[in-house]
Amino acid sequence: MLVVAVFAAGTASGQNPALVDAAKKEGGKVVIYGSLESDSMDAVNKVFQKKTGIQVEYWRASATKVMDRALSEYRAGKPGFDIILTNDNPMQLMLKEGIFAKYDSPSAKEFPKDAIDPNLGPRYRNVIIGVLYNKSQISPADAPKSLEDLVNPKYKGKLVMPDPTQHTTTTQWVASLHKLMGKEKADKYVRDLAAMKPILVESLLPAAERVSTGETPIAITYVKYAFIFGKKGAPLDHVRLPKMMGDGHYLTLGNKAQHPNAGKAFIDFFLGAESMKMIAQLGEFVNRKGVYPPLPDADKIQFVEMVDLDKKGFAEKKKEYTEIFLK
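Above: the chain sequence. Below: its structure as tokens.
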């Protein structure tokens, strides 16, 4: 079932009054399952509710748990969600299961064409993985200038990263390095990186925490953490890599939404200028034209989307990286 609807923005806030009225008649609330951080969603939801009177119920979990719950409910014929909001890989898997409706939001026109999926809509943010370093431990002059620099022997024992044999996003990142340097060079690079004996941690946040305290001078982690931990006083900076890889995130309407008009109204607002600017101010790399996080040179980063891996692909790569990183 495909539902295609186009509404013109009717107010300064980008909301269609008729859509908001219809949303109130169907219950005046929207239910969202997603993995966007609660501080970002809370900021957006508060303004959306004030402007429209529509209540937002947000259930947050990991992308995998969001997908599992949504598919379980959908297959049982009792989907509790109106919108799913999470990253590309699970969104594509859910798309194949046929749980989404196509909605062409008027807010989508302010996103680059290459950031719009024909079925899922605009990729509203890129979650970018890069290299951070602690300036109290390594001077900018001595910091690595490229990914290739990371395997310089002088940095041995000074690097922390998530364990690619356990952390799925890092598995994807390592498996995608060929998109930056070609397959032959990437294969060698992965082995050289493992030979540096990096400290392996559970996920991207602990890697950022270690570099923020100076416990480990360099980290492979989300670039946004340079801003987030910098606000707390950590002397962090990011290496100015010309291209950085990461994951795209979407929000898409369910085709059995109990509150479809509220879902559309929320999508219009969420993709609008006010919402995207709020999220960017929290350090996120949003894709709305001309909106950037308050991070030096954020506008110069060229984003490269990581490869999608299915269940078998993840298993194969994790086995391969166990041999390389843990031998």
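Residues 17-124+249-293 form a domain with the D-Maltodextrin-Binding Protein; domain 2 fold (CATH 3.40.190.10).
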